[in-house]
Amino acid sequence: xxxxxxxxxxxxxxxxxxxxxxxxxxxxxxxxxxxxxxxxxxxxxxxxxxxxxxxxxxxxxxxxxxxxxxxxxxxxxxxxxxxxxxxxxxxxxxxxxxxxxxxxxxxxxxxxxxxxxxxxxxxxxxxxxxxxxxxxxxxxxxxxxxxxxxxxxxxxxxxxxxxxxxxxxxxxxxxxxxxxxxxxxxxxxxxxxxxxxxxxxxxxxxxxxxxxxxxxxxxxxxxxxxxxxxxxxxxxxxxxxxxxxxxxxxxxxxxxxxxxxxxxxxxxxxxxxxxxxxxxxxxxxxxxxxxxxxxxxxxxxxxx
Length: 304
Description:
By secondary structure, the protein is α/β, with parallel strands linked by helices. Helices cover 46% and strands 16% of the residues. Strands 1, 2, 3, 4, 5, 6, 7 and 8 form an eight-stranded mixed beta sheet that branches. The radius of gyration is 19 Å and the shape is globular.
């Protein structure tokens, strides 16, 4: 009798689905006071949080969705299109997780494949051609790690997106609205202004993945969340983001309209702060911002 081999792609989908179901059952609400890192992780994953299509409905008008990367196909995990922001033509790009089980499967739980990133970059190039600012919204556990995605060049698609975003000659405003997972998030996260919602997270690895590596036990995910320093206040302190967008009391999932109101002002202010900079100046500042991340000094050596 031949034993059937497990499909690692199916296992990863099942794990994500299980985590989402647990999050739903918890019926999370931020308690009064400042949530700790693990509480913010759970709030960032809350299935009731606004997603990209919700923000498009709240903040933009005349949205026209664009599909496909002109190379392989369309990826529903990333939504792209033309729109207007305060009557100004713009481009909107963001991850989309889906609400129902069927929608989540269709959107691949917000985990893009290479064609998703290539679609996003195609639309960014259109924005550059027609001189429109770009708004991106990040909310993904990470890029899809399946065999088919790797065969179609997942790593290359992410790297190429990073390189081209660094050179875009239009303003780029980035907002982390929920989960910011590793390169899957960073691929559309290189901008002139990078903001995070108050209860969102941004990290190179999930707390569960970190715990599995350091403690070889996912039960230590809460410890890992604190060690990773993945919350908005942490990242603002380190200079990795520019601004924290406040959320309604209890979390963004409790009041989408109020959350949209806070974000609308922050997006408007952010765009205003970079719109009038010269193109070359804006690109130079963007380059310097990201090149400075992770820089350190050997103080003992400098002392001598």
